[in-house]
Task: structure prediction
Amino acid sequence: MTDIDTALESLTIEERIALTVGSGRWTTVAYPERGVRELWLSDGPHGLRRETAPDVSVPSTCFPTASALGATWDRELVQRVGRALGREAAALNVDVLLGPGINMKRTPLCGRNFEYPSEDPLLTGELAIAYIRGVQGMGVAACLKHFAANNQEQWRHSISAQIDQRTLHETYLRAFERVIEHAEPWTVMCAYNRLNGTYTAEHRGLLTEILRDQWGFSGLVVSDWDAVTDPVASIAAGLDLIMPVKDGATEALLAAVSNGALAQEAVDQAARRLLALADRTTSRGPATPLTDEELRAHHELAREVGRASIVLLHNDSGVLPLSPQTTSIAVIGSFAQVPVIQGGGSANVNPASPGPFLGALRQALPSAEISFAVGVRPDGESTETDVAQEIAEAVAVAATAQVAVVLVGSLPGHESEGYDRAHLELPGAQRNLVDAVIATGTPTVVAVAAGSAVLLGDWHDRSAAVLHWWFGGEAAGESLADVLTGSCDARGRLGETIPLRAQDVPAYLSYPGELGEARYGEGVFIGYRWYDAMELEVRYPFGHGLSYTTFEYEDLEVTTTAEGLRVEVSVQNTGARSGTDVLQVYCTAPPSLVRRPIRDLVGFEAVSVEAGVATRIFLDIPWKDLAYYDVAAGGWRCAEGDYRIEVGASSRDLRLSTAVAVPSWPVSASVLTDEGIDTEIRARTRN
Ligand code: BGC
Result:
């Protein structure tokens, strides 16, 4: 008998049930006399929100949010963030950190997109693996959420995501599957929404058949907060912990066990998993407080990640990086003093030490005269006359400067959990502000702070440079100053497409759904897969981002191994300064029985290279990453044929290409033909 079995044996059925229900908003039940301790669960993905009273939390490092992490494409950096978060959690005795969130960005309108890395499952999955390794390496459980298909906030407590099986596995479950396979998160959180009619908190197919039976998940499944309406149905479906404590849940579960409606084994299993989680997290030992040195290091890490995430979208004029000889700069926008560093909702962190932009810029360019105008006020309380006055002040400041830097983007509350954005434009009168500053003729750099794609108006073509700044965490201002002044390379790459028009977005017609259902009719074609298949122009493609140096790719070689493909390519820094490139590998599958995207991202690597140096990169791509989900077989399949492998700097900047013959995979699978399928379907539909 294991220690966990012994502990379970010592508990009455009432106590076992109580363990599955939680004891407060953030804690579980304890039986110290039986060696069962309380577990503490805290948000969140980009910083610790350890509450001491409702909506009051201990100051902690606010890292850039997930979409910024997504734009780094850097596993090592993200793992370091995970470690720092794990350390901050451990210092406060937090056992479970409620992140990472890995839902797919189906529409840029989703209010919670800032909490998700990308529109691509491979990029999302790889970065989540790194994050979880970092957190769990510190003895703190990560919590993979929201399982699954939580792709909009509108009607999130009732909407049913209607998704066909191939799309579900290939797009919405794929990152989850990857993470379960490679990182073993200790916990998973279900979502609020329904999936094909059933609440995910009660979805046995999802929580037990797919998650545990197919993928082999051995950890604990916790509900999203207040997501459980029927405790008996949830525990029966495979949920282990109902959070927070729910009135009447214990009684309902006890009655169900007593009258046979719920097998006691389901309760025992859930309680056993909670005890196992306590056991796992105990390994980290007693909490030691964070030192000032650690806090400073975490702030520096937030700054480093922030600058690695900023995407230089265009710099046609070459105005960036700002030269040290720049004599005068007009900085416009309230974000220069108080940047928007994160989105709203449960992920909100009380930042330990926010670093403003203006101070950092003045420090980096001490001899430049830096003037400031607030631009349009962020409180939304300005009248039309006020706005005209504010814009006139900004114009006066910009007109006499050598270069203008305008900071715009989502205002506090614009992007948040609980609701979606109403549109993809810059909020309020910011567009007029940008137009007016550009019209002064002063070269204008525009930095857009937002958790997801924002439409860049026609001002884009008249600007000198544009950057996507994300929600950059507590060091957002310093990170931006670093990139603008070129103290580091510009190295962020888009983890999501920036469309030209809202109407081009794949879910345009089916979002937010109707009569309680959102039909994911675009299938596997979300993000760049959609824009490519539809041959739509976009403002900036997935994977795009400029550097302050230039990179070339050479000598692409692709060979097959028993497990998949080996891709080798050289990346050469052909510019005059060191820099970091993100090498991207895409694959075009041959025609098969299902319609495949034009290309899928199948590999990537962030590579730092000195000026004039070339480095050889090796990437192993398992067959599964080239495969589609075969619904009939209930698994992944590669059709035999020639696969085109392309290497480039974005999904639309592909520089090298080669074809490789791929055998049918898995080897044991029967070879499908149209005729075979046709015969099978006819046979099935006759019965
Ligand atoms: C969110 C979760 C979060 C939980 C606890 C819910 O509203 O959806 O992501 O972890 O609250 O704060």
Remarks:
- The radius of gyration is 26 Å.
- The first strand starts at residue 41 and ends at 42.
